[in-house]
Amino acid sequence: MTLIYNLAADFGASSGRLILSKFDGDKIELEEIHRFSNDPVRIGSRFYWDFPRLFHELKNGLKKAALKGIDISGIGIDTWGVDYGLIDKNGDLLSNPIHYRDNRTDNIIDDIEKIMSFEEIYKVTGIQYLQLNTLYQLYADLKFRPDILEKADALLFMPDLFNFYLTGQKYNEYTIASTSQMLEVFSKTWALEMLEKLSLPTKILQKIIMPGNIIGKLTKDIQEETGLPDVPVMSVGSHDTASAVAATPLEGENCAYISSGTWSLLGVESKEPIVNEDSLKDNFTNEGGLEGRIRFLKNINGLWMIQQLKKHWQEHGIDVGYGEISKAAAAVKNDGFIIDPNDKSFLAPLNMATAVQQYCINNGQGEPREIGEIARAVYNGLAREYKARISNLEEITGRKINVINMVGGGIQDEFLCQHTANITGKTVLAGPIEATALGNILAQLIALGEINDLSQGREIVKNSITQKKYTPQ
Ligand code: ADP
Ligand code: LRH
């Protein structure tokens, strides 16, 4: 068979990367051709995406791909969920997109509750409460910068925004739109009635495009600048977690997944949305996946805490890497420190080490002082949270979970994988690391007719990687 080459651009919080894939009909090989840091910037009191810089890096990656001189069949873009850019009728970006860790949504739920209860919103959207959801961000725009919203002609989620400036085509891709809390969960269409009730503009919403279609071809300008020909940009699971779950080799209903990176996304795949009193009580979400599958999951604040600890220590002259932090945490004598990862104080603290120490002191545990102790408090908190949420999942779905498939960059942390197995008492199957890029590529290969469907895609993932098994000890 002829070899098929595709490009996946994945904008994660720990880094952005462009990955070139080679498909030979049986397996997919990945080659990372460009990696760059993704640094949001605080200006005044606002916390922004550095969109121009990231678009620059995207083009740098495309230039590197062009230099390879191979025939590229498609490009797919994914980013984290919920964030968006607003553009005017000329296609100009009205402001640098604001990052979801910005504090403008801090009390927005109270404003919204006066008009519609969370329960009502949940029944329509099936989406968990997180103050960072697009719905709350957009409401904050209405409250704090209505002038920008008035000028807006289109709301484009971050992958849509990259796609627009690559192709000139405006769409809202379904999986990323599903994170907004603005879609009706069952019909997969905009929740217009709810949005109108909240006085949010609906004319800025675009046509929804499902993963697995062609968005458009690279514009002439982009072709000239990058040296690539008129390659199609494809709609993929443009929410990074949708792509990660797509490439998770789940073996049936008794498997749960943890997509482990900046966040831990823990859940199961479901054919239908699950929206009932229990899912509401436990704040589980119904996000969209490939082939109309539902990602029934929960967001758990994840390795963001370890990223921020590493940054803090490095800024203070202690040059520790992820591997060393993980080993130090595994080796501590006092392993009793534990935090609640979902505590508000860990969402965007100025100093993560102090936030962890303060939490432990406030909760009568004393003060973790060494690197290993502080990190261990985080790992213990994560593993305890995984155990509790798996048990919620079992109750809500009636499934018995035997295996946890862990995927994403976080599985390079062997202590985290083993600790997860030990504390949950479940077998952990770790792999793939680059699940998001693989899922992005799978959607493209399905669209190109090279792979029949997601089940075949997951078989191909299994052929392409080695999974590591962690048994509870
Ligand atoms: P995202 O897509 O959210 O940017 P990734 O899936 O790339 O995140 O995962 C990044 C995380 O993986 C880091 O925050 C770090 O905790 C973990 N990690 C990466 N490399 C290693 C390593 N060598 N050892 C242990 N952990 C690692
Ligand atoms: C993970 C992720 C997660 C979202 C969060 C904002 O990268 O996309 O699924 O909820 O970022």
UniProtKB/TrEMBL annotation:
GO-annotated cellular components: cytosol
Molecular function via GO: ATP binding; glycerol kinase activity; rhamnulokinase activity
Keywords for the protein's UniProt record, in alphabetical order: ATP-binding, Disulfide bond, Kinase, Nucleotide-binding, Rhamnose metabolism, Transferase
Keyword check for Nucleotide-binding: yes
Stretches assigned to the Carbohydrate kinase FGGY C-terminal domain: 256-447
InterPro entries cross-referenced by the UniProt entry: ATPase_NBD, Carb_kinase_FGGY, FGGY_C, FGGY_N, Rhamnulokinase
Name of the protein described by the UniProt record: Rhamnulokinase
A Gene Ontology BP annotation from the UniProt entry: glycerol metabolic process
Keyword Disulfide bond attached: yes
Highest taxon, organism lineage: Bacteria
Family label: Belongs to the FGGY kinase family.
Sequence ranges assigned to domain Carbohydrate kinase FGGY N-terminal in this UniProt record: 6-245
